Structures
1.
Amino acid sequence: MATHITRDVDLAVETLRKGGIVAIPTETVYGLAALALDETAVGRVFSAKGRPRDHPLIVHLAPSADPSLWGVLDDNALSLAAAFWPGPLTILVPRTALVPDWVTGGRSTVALRVPSHPTAVTLLERLGDALVAPSANTFGRVSPTTARHVADDLGDTIDLVLDGGPCDVGVESTIVECTHDGLQILRPGAVTRDDVERVTGVEVGALTGGARAPGMLASHYAPRAAVEVVDNLTAARDRANEIDARGGKARLVAHDDPSDYARHLYADMRAADDEGATVVVAVDPGDEGLGPAVRDRLLRAAAR
Ligand code: TXA
Ligand code: MG
C-alpha cells in the first residue's frame, strides 16, 4: 500500500491521538511524529526509522505550551527561547519528572523545540500535546525536506505524511546545551553561534564535534556516494573532470548563497544517489549564516 500523503491537519491530529505515527513538515526537515507520552507510539517511531532505542528524541511543543513542564530552563535557555522560538532552535536542558525515559534514552536532560512551520504550529496547537519528531528518514539516510522524500524512504511503515511543501531551512535545528554554566552548540543550524552569543551575552564554547549528542554520526548526513569538499567552484570542476576521466561519475554540489545551499543540500545528495554518482564534489559554503551548518553536514559525510 502506498503511503498516504495529505494536507489535512485534522486527519493528522486524529491519527496521532490514536497512537499513530505521522511525518510532519517543519521549517528545518520533516520529522516522524508521535505523542511523546505514548510509549507504544514512540516505540513505533524507533522501529520505523531502525534507530537504536538509546538515541534521545527532541520534544516538540506548540508556541502556547509551557516548556517548564518538560525542562528546567535557566536564564540563558529562557533568553534563547524568547528570541528564537518558534524557530529552528533546540534547547537541551535538565528534564522534569514528566519526561519519560523512552524519550531521552534514560538521560537526565531533554531536548526541547518549538517549530515555526505554520502547518506544524497548527498541528501542535490543535493537538494540545507534545510530540517527539526525529528526522523522518531511515537510520543512516539523509533527512527529508519534502513529503515525497519521506514517502520514498519510509514507505508504508508509517501511518501518514502531512505535506507542508518543501522545508525552508533544509538542515536540522541548531542544538544548544544549557545545562551548566557554559553554553555549547552541539549541532550547528540556522540559529548561528553569533545569534546565541548576541542574545545571551555569553561566549559559546567551540564546536566539540557533537560528542554529547548521540546519534550525530557521520553516516546520518551522508549519501551513498563518497563526499569530497573543495574550496571553490574552479577546484570542484577540475576534481569532477578528473573523477569522470577515471571512469567515476561525479556530481557537483554548489550554491552561492549559504541559505540556498542548506535548502537544497539533502535533495542534492539524494539526486546524486538517484543518478548513480560515485562522488559528490561539494564546494565549501563559507562562514556566513548557514555556511557552518552546511559545512558540518558535508564534513561528517566526507569523514564517513
Ligand atoms: O530540526 C530538527 O531538530 C529536526 C526536526 C524534525 O525537528 N529533528 C531532528 O531530530 O533533527 P533527530 O532525532 O534526527 O536529531 C536530534 C538530535 C540527535 O542527534 C540526538 O542525539 C540529540 O538531538 N538529542 C536529543 N535529545 C538529547 C539529549 N537529551 N541529550 C543529548 N542529545 C540529544
Ligand atoms: Mg536525524
2.
Amino acid sequence: MTKSGFSLATLPSPAANEAIYLDHHATTPVDTRVAKIVFDMMVSSFGNANSVDHVFGETATAIVADAKRRVAELVGSDPDSVFFTSGSTEAIRLAISHAIGPTRASPLRIALTRVEHQAVIDTANLAEQLGLAVVTWIDVDHRARLVSESLHDALERGTDLVCVMAANNEVGTIYPLGEIVPLVHRHDAAILVDATQAAGRIAFDAFGADVDYLILSGHKIYAPKGIGALVSGIYDASRVYGLGVTHDATPNVPGIAGMGEACRIMLSEGRDETRRIADMRDRLQTNLARQLQDLVVNGDQENRLAHNLHISVPDTPNDLIVNRLRKKVAISTGAACMSGAQSSSHVLRAMGMEDCLQEGALRIGLGRFTSESDIENAVAEIIAAVRDVKNAMVGKDYD
Ligand code: PLP
C-alpha cells in the first residue's frame, strides 16, 4: 500500500483471466516483477529525469541510465546507443527518417523483405510516395526464408538501407543476421533490424552492436505498452528528416524502468524459458497434428521462434475457428494489425501459400505464463472448434 492508498494487490494477475491466452505475438502480459518497478516509479521515485536540481530528478536520471544499460546488455550494444520511444512503430519511423536525413539530393534506396511488419512497409511506402525513397522488395520462399539471390541482387543494384526483421511476427521464421549484417555492410549499406518479436528469444551478442538501427518494443517482452527503443550507434536526433525530433521531452521513466527490468529478466531467464516454451509448443503441434490429419505447419520448422506455432487447416475459414474459440482460447488469424481486417496476410501471400491454406491459417503464440494444462486444454478446444466449423461447412449443425 502506498501513500496514495493504491495497492498493487488490487491489480488483476495474468491468471485472473479465464480464457487461455495464446496470442503472445500480439502482446504479452506485464510480468509482475516489471509491474512492481513501474508502479514504484509512478508513486515513489516519480522525479523528472530532466530536473537534475534535486534528488528526485537525480534518481530518475540514474534509473534511465540503468535501463539503457539493461537494454544494451540484452542486444549486445552500447548504452549510449539506446533511445527510448513509445514502441517499435515509432522507433521504425525515427530510424527511416534518420536514414533519409534532414536533406537529400536523391531518394534513399530502401530494400526490404516482403514479410516485414506493416509498420516498416507503410513507412517505406510513405517515404516513396513523398519522393524521399525508392523501394525494392526482397523475396522470401515458401517457409518465409530470405531468398539470398534477391538480397544480393538488391545490394548489387545499389541500396542505402536494408530492412530485415530478426524473426517474423506471423510464422516465426528467424533470419540469419550473423550472415546478413556483414554482407549488407560490405556493400556500404546500412541495416535496420526489427527485433520486436525476437528480443530475448534469440541471441544478439554476435551482431547486435553492428546493426545500424535495431528496433525493440516493451509490450512483446512482458513490459507495458507505450515503451520501446531504437538502438543505434549512428542515430542523431538533429539529423532526422522533417521538423526534427527532440529527446529533451520528459522521459517516460516508469515505462523505461519497466523496459529495463523486462530486458534484465529476458537476459537472465530467456534461454531456459525459450527451451521450456519450445517443448510445450512442440507438444501442442504434435497433439494437434495427431488429431487433425490435414493440418499443415507453416514457417521454417528448423529455425523459428520457440513461442510460435503457425498452422493451416485447409479450406476451413480461420475467422470462424477463432470466433468459436473467442471466450476459451485466444489465438489469432494473423498479425494484430490484420486481425479483423478480413484481408489476407501479406506474409502468407509473399510465401506463395495456396488460398486454401491462407484461408485456414491460425497463429498461436505461447508465453512465459503458459502452463502444461493450458496446452492440454487448448488442444481439446482447438480440435473441437475446428470440427465444429468443418461440420457446419458441410451443412450440419451450423448456427
Ligand atoms: N514489428 C513487429 C515485428 C511487430 O510484431 C510489431 C507489433 O506487432 C511491431 C513492429 C509494432 O510494435 P509496437 O506495437 O511496439 O509499435
